[in-house]
C-alpha cells in the first residue's frame, strides 16, 4: 500500500485502520476508483517479485501515478502524508564556519525512528551515497533522488541486511526507474509531456519522455527540469540579519536525465543499458548570517552559498526468465558505475577579512550484482519450494576536501577531513521460499565482508585499515488462515559498517583546546527485529496491522574520550561504539472501497524509542510523534476528487533528550489537503492540489529537532501555509 494522507478513522481493533490512498489517474472510460490491492507487487522485501500480502514484513509501494497526482516536487513532498516515513529538511540558515543548518537540503529518510546512513537507499539496486558532516560542511541523501523518473518507490520496514547487506538497520527505500514498457503499453511508440507549477517555492517544472520499440529493441529517453526558489514558511520577520524568520532567498535548478535501451535476445534473455544523470544547483543569499546594520557593526556583511549536487551512473543489465528452465528459472545481473559529488562554496564579505570556503565530498562506486531463482521439486506439489540466491560486490572510492582562504587558526588548507578511502563490500545470500496453500516460510542468511583501506597521501594524521565480516539471518512466516485473517511473523537482523570518516579522521585546533582522532577498533552497528502482523480482506475492504520490537547495539557516536580542553591537554573527540537502543511501535493501514466511485483509506502509526549508555536511558530524538490519517476519494468518469486529512501529535518534553537549554517541543497539528484530476481526454489531463487548505500554522518535529524553546526565530522553522499546485500532462 501507499502513502496515507489524512486523519484517523476510528474502527474496531478487529478490522484495523484503513491505509494508503490510491490516487492513480485513469481514463474517462474507467469510471471506477483504483484501489490498492493486497496483490501489489514489491521486489524489495525478498529481492524477488512478490505480492505484498505474501511478505512477512511491512512494505508500502508509492507508484509514479501517486507522485504525479500529489504534485510532489521532491522526495520530501512525495512522502509528506506517509504515517511512518519522514524526511528532515531544516531551513537554510547556515554560515561559512560555524553552522550547517539547512545546508544538507533533504537530509535523509527516517523509517520508524532511525534515519541518515542507517537507512539503505538504492536506485535500481545501486546504493545512493552516504551523508557526511564536518562542521559547517554537511551533505544529505534525499537530493540525490529524482521522483520524476521513478516508476515506483518501495519502502521496507525493519532490518534489510539479508537482502542488501550493510546499511539497512531501519529498513530500505528502493527506487525503481521507469522502463520503456511503462510508456508503450503495448504500442510501438509513446510518451508524454508534463508542465507544472507549485506556489510553495514558485517552482516551474517541465518533463518530456519518449519511448519506442522495433524488432526486439526498446528505448526510452526522459528529461526533467525544475527551476524554483525558497520554500515558503509562515515566518513574519523580513529583516536581513539573524532576526529574520522568513526564508533566505534561494534559486534552485534541478535537472535529471534517464535513458534506457533494451534488446530481447530471445524469449528468455534480455540485455540493456541505463544512463542516468541528476544535477541540482542552488544559490543562497544568507541574510540570516549578516550582522544588523550599524556604523559599529563587526562581523559578516554578506554571505552567499553556491551548492551543487551531482549523481551520474551507467549500468549494464542482463535478465533471464524461463519458467520451464532447468536449474535456474530467472536471473538478473547488473554491472554498474556511479559517480556522485557534493560541492559547497561559500563567499563571505566581512568587516575585517573576507572569507571563502570550498568543500567537496565525492563517491565513485563500481559494482556487480546477480540474483538468481531456482524452483525445487514439482510445480504441482503440495509444498512448493524455491531458492533465491546471489552475489554482490562493490568498491567505492570516497574523497573529501576542505579548502578556502584564510584557513582557520592553526590549520592549513586545503585539507582532507578523512583520508581518501577505498571501501570494499562483498556479500552472498541465500533464501528459501517454502509454501503451501496455507503457509509460507521464508528463511534466509547473508554473509558480508567489508574493508576500509585508506590512503595516507595528502592526509595529515594516522591512518588505519579496518576489515570485518558480518552474518545476518532472517526468518519469516505467513499463515493464510482465512481471507479476513492472515497472520505473519518475522525475526530479522541487520548491520551497518562504519564509514571512512568515522574510522579515520584527524583535526586539531590546539588554540581552542580540541582535536578529533580516528578509531581502528570500531565495530558495526547491529540490529535485531521482531515483527508480528495481521492482514485480511473481505469484499471491498482490506487492512494490515503490525507491531514491532527493534533492538540495536553498538551505535556509533562521537564522544570526548580524553583531555581537559587546555591547549596542552586538548579534548579528544572520537567515534566509538557506545549506545544501545530500543524502538517499539505499532501501525495499522486499511482501505475500503464503498462502491465503484468511492474509496476511503486511513492509517495510524506510533513508536517509542530510547537509547541506553552507561546505564542511563535517554529518549531517541529521531522518533516521530504518532501520526494518523484519513483519505476519501471520489471518481466519476473524467473527474477524480481527493481529500486527505493528516493529524500529527505534538512532541512532549519528556520524550526529548535533555540539553542545556530547554528544547522546543512543537504542538500537534491537523492539515487538510484537497486535490482534483480532470481527464479532458485520453491524451490530456489536468491535476490541481491545494495543500493546507485552512492555512494551519505548525512545526514538523523532523525539521525542528535541536531548536531551543526560547529561540527568537522559531517561526523560521514553520511548515508552509496554504499552497497550490497545478500540472498538465499530454500523452502521445
Tell me about this structure.
By secondary structure, the protein is mainly β. The chain has a 22-stranded antiparallel barrel. Strand 21 (421-435) and strand 22 form a beta hairpin. The protein is globular and about 80 Å long.
Summary of the model, kept short:
By secondary structure, the protein is mainly beta. The chain is built from six helices and 36 strands. A hairpin with a 2-residue loop joins strand 13 and strand 14 (217-229).
Structural class: mainly beta
Helix-residue proportion = under 10%
Shape: globular
User: Helix count?
Assistant: 6
Strand proportion, as a percent range, falls in: over 45%
Number of strands: 36
| Model regions low in confidence, pLDDT < 50 over at least 5 residues | 1-32
User: Whole-number radius of gyration?
Assistant: 26 Å
Kindly report the average pLDDT value: 90
Q: Give the N-terminus to C-terminus distance in angstroms.
A: 29 Å
Main β-sheet, in a few words?
22 strands, antiparallel, barrel
Keywords:
6 helices, mainly beta, 732 residues, 22-stranded antiparallel barrel, 4% helix
Ordered list of secondary-structure elements with their pairings:
Elements: E1 41-42, E2 50-51, E3 59-63, H1 64-70, H2 75-78, E4 85-88, E5 108-111, E6 120-123, E7 126-127, E8 132-134, E9 137-139, E10 150-157, H3 161-164, E11 171-177, H4 180-184, E12 189-198, E13 203-214, E14 217-229, E15 250-264, E16 269-285, E17 300-321, E18 330-350, E19 355-376, E20 384-405, E21 421-435, E22 439-454, E23 466-479, E24 486-496, H5 500-503, E25 507-509, E26 514-517, E27 525-538, E28 541-562, E29 571-593, E30 598-613, E31 616-619, E32 627-636, E33 639-648, E34 669-679, E35 684-691, H6 701-704, E36 723-731
Parallel strand pairs: 6-11, 26-29
Antiparallel strand pairs: 1-2, 3-10, 4-5, 6-7, 8-9, 10-11, 12-13, 12-36, 13-14, 14-15, 15-16, 16-17, 17-18, 18-19, 19-20, 20-21, 21-22, 22-23, 23-24, 24-27, 25-26, 27-28, 28-29, 29-30, 30-31, 30-32, 32-33, 33-34, 34-35, 35-36
Amino acid at each position: 500500500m501507499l502513502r496515507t494522507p489524512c486523519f484517523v478513522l476510528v474502527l474496531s481493533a478487529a478490522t484495523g485502520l484503513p491505509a494508503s490512498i490510491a490516487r492513480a489517474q485513469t481514463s474517462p472510460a474507467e469510471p471506477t476508483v483504483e484501489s490498492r490491492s493486497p496483490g501489489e507487487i514489491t521486489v524489495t522485501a525478498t529481492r524477488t517479485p512478490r505480492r505484498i500480502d505474501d511478505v512477512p514484513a511491512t512494505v508500502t509501494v508509492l507508484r509514479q501515478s501517486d507522485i504525479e497526482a500529489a504534485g510532489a516536487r521532491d522526495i520530501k513532498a512525495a512522502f509528506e502524508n506517509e504515517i511512518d516515513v519522514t524526511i528532515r529538511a531544516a531551513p537554510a540558515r547556515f554560515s561559512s564556519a560555524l553552522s550547517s543548518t539547512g545546508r544538507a537540503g533533504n537530509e535523509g529518510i527516517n523509517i520508524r525512528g532511525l534515519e541518515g546512513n542507517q537507512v539503505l537507499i538504492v536506485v535500481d539496486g545501486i546504493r545512493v551515497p552516504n551523508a557526511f558532516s564536518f562542521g559547517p560542511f554537511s551533505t544529505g541523501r534525499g537530493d540525490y533522488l529524482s521522483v520524476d523518473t521513478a516508476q515506483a518507490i518501495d519502502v521496507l520496514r525493519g532490518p534489510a541486511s539479508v537482502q542488501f547487506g550493510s546499511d539497512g538497520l531501519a529498513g530500505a527505500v528502493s527506487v525503481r526507474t521507469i522502463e520503456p514498457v511503462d510508456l508503450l503499453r503495448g504500442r510501438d511508440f509513446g510518451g508524454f509531456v508534463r508542465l507544472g507549477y507549485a506556489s510553495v517555492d514558485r517552482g516551474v517544472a517541465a518533463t518530456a519522455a519518449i519511448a519506442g520499440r522495433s524488432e526486439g529493441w526498446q528505448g526510452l529517453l526522459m528529461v526533467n527540469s525544475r527551476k524554483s526558489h525558497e520554500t515558503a514558511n509562515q515566518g513574519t520577520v523580513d529583516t536581513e540579519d539573524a532576526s529574520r524568520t522568513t526564508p533566505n532567498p534561494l534559486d534552485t535548478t534541478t535537472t535529471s536525465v534517464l535513458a534506457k535501451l533494451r534488446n530481447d535476445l530471445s524469449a528468455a534473455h534480455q540485455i540493456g543499458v541505463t544512463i542516468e544523470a541528476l544535477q541540482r544547483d542552488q544559490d543562497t543569499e544568507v541574510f540570516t548570517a549578516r550582522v544588523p546594520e550599524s556604523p559599529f557593526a563587526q562581523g559578516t556583511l554578506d554571505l552567499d552559498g553556491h551548492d551543487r549536487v551531482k549523481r551520474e551512473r551507467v549500468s549494464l543489465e542482463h535478465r533471464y526468465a524461463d519458467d520451464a528452465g532447468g536449474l535456474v528459472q530467472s536471473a538478473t545481473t547488473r554491472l554498474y558505475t556511479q559517480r556522485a559529488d557534493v560541492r559547497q562554496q561559500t563567499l563571505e564579505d566581512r568587516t575585517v577579512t573576507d572569507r571563502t570556503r570550498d568543500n567537496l565530498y565525492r563517491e565513485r562506486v563500481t559494482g556487480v550484482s546477480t540474483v538468481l531463482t531456482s524452483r525445487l521439486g514439482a510445480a504441482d506439489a503440495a509444498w512448493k519450494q524455491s531458492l533465491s540466491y546471489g552475489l554482490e560486490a562493490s568498491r567505492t572510492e570516497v574523497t573529501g576536501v576542505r579548502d578556502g582562504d584564510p584557513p582557520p587558526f592553526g590549520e592549513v588548507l586545503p585539507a582532507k577531513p578523512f583520508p581518501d578511502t577505498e571501501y570494499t563490500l562483498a556479500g552472498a545470500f541465500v533464501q528459501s521460499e517454502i509454501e503451501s496453500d496455507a503457509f509460507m516460510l521464508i528463511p534466509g542468511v547473508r554473509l558480508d565482508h567489508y574493508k576500509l583501506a585508506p590512503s595516507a597521501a595528502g592526509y595529515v594524521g594516522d591512518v588505519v585499515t579496518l576489515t570485518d565480516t558480518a552474518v545476518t539471518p532472517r526468518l519469516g512466516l505467513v499463515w493464510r488462515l482465512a481471507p479476513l485473517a492472515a497472520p505473519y511473523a518475522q525475526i530479522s537482523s541487520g548491520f551497518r559498517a562504519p564509514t571512512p570518516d568515522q574510522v579515520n579522521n584527524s583535526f586539531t585546533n590546539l588554540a581552542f583546546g580540541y582535536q578529533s582522532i580516528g578509531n581502528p577498533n570500531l565495530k558495526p552497528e547491529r540490529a535485531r527485529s521482531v515483527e508480528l502482523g495481521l492482514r485480511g480482506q473481505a469484499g471491498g475492504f482490506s487492512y494490515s496491522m503490525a507491531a514491532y520490537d527493534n533492538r540495536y547495539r553498538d551505535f556509533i557516536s562521537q564522544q570526548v574520550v580524553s583531555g581537559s580542553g587546555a591547549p596542552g591537554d586538548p579534548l579528544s573527540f572520537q567515534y566509538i561504539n557506545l549506545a544501545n537502543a530500543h524502538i517499539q511501535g505499532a501501525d495499522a493501514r486499511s482501505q475500503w472501497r464503498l462502491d465503484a466511485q468511492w474509496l476511503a483509506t486511513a492509517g495510524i502509526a506510533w513508536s517509542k524509542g530510547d537509547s541506553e549508555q552507561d546505564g542511563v536511558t535517554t529518549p531517541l530524538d529521531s522518533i516521530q510523534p504518532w501520526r494518523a490519517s484519513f483519505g476519501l476519494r471520489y471518481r466519476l468518469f473524467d473527474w477524480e476528487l481527493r481529500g486527505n486529512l493528516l493529524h500529527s501529535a505534538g512532541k512532549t518534553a519528556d520524550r526529548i533528550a535533555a540539553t542545556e537549554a530547554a528544547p522546543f517541543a512543537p504542538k500537534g497539528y491537523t492539515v487538510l489537503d484537497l486535490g482534483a484530476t480532470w481527464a479532458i481526454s485520453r491524451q490530456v489531463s489536468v491535476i490541481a492540489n491545494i495543500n493546507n487548505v485552512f492555512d494551519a500554522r505548525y512545526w514538523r518535529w523532523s525539521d525542528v529537532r535541536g531548536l531551543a524553546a526560547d529561540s527568537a526565530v522559531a517561526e523560521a522553522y514553520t511548515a508552509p501555509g496554504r499552497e497550490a499546485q497545478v500540472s498538465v500532462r499530454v500523452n502521445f
